[in-house]
Amino acid sequence: MTNVQVDENGLKKTPMYDYYVEKGCKITDFGGWGLPIQITKIAEEHEAVRNAVGLFDASHMGEVRVKSGKMNAYDWWNGLITNDVHKATYNGKAQYTAVCKEDGGMLDDLIYYRRNDDEFVATPNGSNREKIVQWMHDHNQDGQVEITDETYDWGLIAVQGPNAEALLARITDTDLKEIEYYSYKQDQVVAGIERVQISRTGYTGEEGFELYIPSEHMVDIWKKLVEEGQDLGVKECALGARDTLRLEAGLPLYGNDFDESVNPIAGGIAFAVPKAKEADYIGKEAIAAYRAGDKKEASRGFKIDGKQIARHGMEVKSQDGEVIGVVTSGTKSPSLGYPLGFVRVNSNFKVGDKVIIDIRGKEIEAELTKKDWLSASK
């Protein structure tokens, strides 16, 4: 794996780091990586993704390649993840899953890409990559599979928004319409650069693609996308807009909406834990027991009729004043104009119920909702 560079504060540099510095962006610590909160203005970047097209540097995400050895890679992987590898039915398919401890607590949520019958690439969250790679090795003591961390060899650009396909089509001959949602094509040519993986995935709730690019060529492709996308409304985007976009789309963030103390059922991603999965996996018994138990938590959406914004960690109460949970994420929706977010509360509290959120000492009423604000508004 290529050695990663660090800045004077010890933050790891993505391939875009020097570009950010040249543009005068303020760099912040995001899971040990140096990334900007905004490149222009968060509201402008958010709007571009909703109505045109935006570019994101997601190179902090991990890329870990696993190949079959003494054991088939997918049979081995099926024992570590909550989802069922047999649902990823063809080469070129991607699948979202959780990785859990024995007690069901989540080590990470991630996507992996099925390259062929004996090889896949997992993409752990940047802050969890080292932990997940170690977890893989800890459960590969007999060398069943071959594990290679290639994170620093790759850059990752997310091209997101209604004009994403039109923009990307200008710099590649790949037939993008052939790529289904949560699928990809490997070894494509983009802006004259070979070995680019094009996947129809994203973290914004909009149409879009993610480009896995050899790290030395990432800035070249980024600049080409900016150049070609001027008439399509392209904007360079960063962490702030990513967060408001993913929240409107009802998408969770590790470290906010769940962590090692939270199982995927309470964390709101039960769809990634199929009850019918036959194979044993780490955490299966604990998750099944939690599902069957009485005292459960659930992740709900909420919205507030007013200007007060609830943030991560704020207390949630019933109308009677009983503490029933906590805010895990919150913002004011740029698209919808009102504060919204996620809470993790006693599962007896359902969509439509009114709750109280303690916002800096003020008790503010909120309504529990589905996390479908974006789709419901279209």
From TrEMBL:
- Residues forming the GCVT N-terminal domain are 16-277
Q: What residues does substrate bind to?
A: 210
The signal peptide here is none
Q: Where is the Aminomethyltransferase C-terminal domain?
A: 301-371
Give a Pfam family name: GCV_T_C
Query: Which keywords, in A-to-Z order, does the entry hold?
Result: Aminotransferase, Methyltransferase, Transferase
User: Molecular function (GO) terms listed?
Assistant: aminomethyltransferase activity; methyltransferase activity; transaminase activity
UniProt-listed GO biological process terms:
glycine decarboxylation via glycine cleavage system; methylation
What EC identifiers does the entry list? Answer: 2.1.2.10
Q: Reaction catalysed by this chain?
A: N(6)-[(R)-S(8)-aminomethyldihydrolipoyl]-L-lysyl-[protein] + (6S)-5,6,7,8-tetrahydrofolate = N(6)-[(R)-dihydrolipoyl]-L-lysyl-[protein] + (6R)-5,10-methylene-5,6,7,8-tetrahydrofolate + NH4(+)
Which enzyme class, named as a word? transferase
Its biological purpose: The glycine cleavage system catalyzes the degradation of glycine.
How does it associate, per the subunit comment?
Answer: The glycine cleavage system is composed of four proteins: P, T, L and H.
User: Which family, according to the similarity comment?
Assistant: Belongs to the GcvT family.
Q: What is this protein called?
A: Aminomethyltransferase
Q: Name the lineage.
A: Bacteria, Bacillati, Bacillota, Bacilli, Lactobacillales
Gene (name only): gcvT
